[in-house]
Amino acid sequence: MVLRSVCLGTVSTWPEKSPRPTGPAPTEAEPTTLSAHPTPYSFATRPVKPGEILILHGVGFGPTTPHVPAGQLFAGAATTNSPVTITIGGLTANVAFAGITEAGLYQFNLTVPANTGSGDQALQAIVNGARTPLGPVVTVQ
Questions:
Q1: Whose CB has fewer CB within 10 Å in the chain, the N or C terminal residue?
Q2: Is residue 16 scored above 80 in pLDDT?
Q3: Can you list the domains of the chain with their CATH numbers?
């Protein structure tokens, strides 16, 4: 298993000189980026594999416990009050953590489903029946 991160359609681990995520993390990996598309990153890229662990980030996923006031500094981890479902290519991923890890920034630790098909796969999050637009995509190989 490898810890990965998804941001703006690119799946990546954290570069050596960048801060690591502060939320609960299942494991750590060597720095690398996973992407099928040209990226502005100055380090190597590759597609993600089924079974790898990803970290996604987003905003606007609702209240947490403990409550994190809007606009306030925050350090730590506060889980979402409502379950968050995340799909990759239409397949439901196992979400191990969903919550705020910095002021206003939600983090989702999940595992790419074992039967995810190869190629660009759209990401989508669902909370309380509300769905994010399809995308960004993660390339699976």
A1: N
A2: no
A3: 3-140 (2.60.40)
